[in-house]
Amino acid sequence: MKVRFWGVRGSIPSPGKHTVRYGGNTTCIEVRPDDGSLIILDAGTGIFPLSQSLFPEFPITAHIFNTHTHWDHIQGLPFFIPFFVPDNRVNIYGVADPISQKGIREILDTQLQYRFFPIREVELKADIAYQSLVEAEVVHIGETKITPVLMNHPVINFGYRIDCNGKSMFFTGDHEPPSNIYTPDDEEYKEYQSLIEQKNKGMIDVIQGVDVMIADASYTPEEYEAKKGWGHGTYDSNIVMARDAGVKKLYCTHHEPTRSDDDLEAVFEAALERNPRQEGDPECFLAQEGLTIDW
Ligand SMILES: [Zn+2]
Ligand SMILES: [Zn+2]
Q1: What is the rounded distance in angstroms from the CA atom of residue 2 to the CA atom of residue 118?
Q2: What dihedral angle (degrees, nearest 10) is formed by the CA atoms of 197, 200, 206, 211?
Q3: Interaxial angle between packed helices 189-207 and 235-244, expressed in degrees from 0 to 180 and rounded to the nearest 10
Q4: Which of 29, 117, 199, 271 has its CA 20 to 30 A from that of 61?
Q5: Is the pLDDT of residue 241 over 80?
Q6: Distance 59 CA to ligand 1 centre (A)
Q7: C-alpha 49 to ligand 1 mean position (Å)
């Protein structure tokens, strides 16, 4: 299995001399299981350079799995070049909105409205199909199995576990570990706590034993105090989650747009020092644009 990072930044693209090493594009990950299928996790601005790398393979079949429809995870989608070339096939998977009952097609359709983008969806040349997913609804692509997992974010966000030939990976999308909104003195505290523990156990069970976990580690614990409820995790919360799930390698991503390369390395090093590696713990890395993991 091969994984390549095309965008590792959260919230907004952040080009410039201070982000050259880790990259300024927003979330996009290319996954190639052993059978060579093309799976793309999220369509942040990183999908534009990814799509340029695909020319030699045209015509292609691409499978784009969207974790959720916040801008930094869809902004590059209209610029996915295979859309404009006949004979390409693009399958787009994502969450249906439970309140409006709108599927992934209707949600993304908004992006291609004439007032926002000069080319309408009907004018795209590729064969495009949409599939709205519900939690735990497994998608099979050849020998590869993709499982959506409900995470914790202000809108519904699916993490995706991908399995092929005994190799596995998991991407959280945007995720904040659920925390108790009550204080221990409140009557509701205990019941809420047991719901959280149940939810965490459910997530850990699905992630269990993956070779690679790519996770939303936006904040340091100090930064997090002012940003509770914004829907993002910390380096520390992800190290703990990866440890609990028996993950082999953890890649921290969704880097803060204001964080320079040097700052990023400094906060990451500090996180590793706070969480010394013990036997069986995952190896931890920073996700970096252009980095390929091959195993
Ligand atoms: Zn995001
Ligand atoms: Zn988000």
Answers
A1: 35
A2: -130
A3: 70
A4: 117
A5: yes
A6: 30
A7: 19
- Give me ligand 2 centre to Cα 68, in Å: 7
Distance 214 CA to ligand 2 centre (A): 15
Domain boundaries, the chain: 2-294
Q: What's the chain's average pLDDT?
A: 95
Closest CA to 272 of 234, 224, 220, 236: 236
Q: Could you say which ligand is closest to the alpha carbon of residue 11?
A: 1
Domain at 2-294: CATH architecture: 4-Layer Sandwich (3.60)
Report the pLDDT value the prediction gives residue 96, as an integer from 0 to 100. Answer: 85
CA 70 / ligand 2 centre spacing (Å): 5
Q: What would the pLDDT profile of 94-152 be if each residue is shown by its tens digit?
A: 998 878 888 899 877 888 888 888 988 888 999 999 999 999 999 999 999 999 999 99
**What spacing in Å lies between the alpha carbon of 187 and ligand 1's midpoint?**
34
Which ligand does the CA of 9 lie closest to?
1
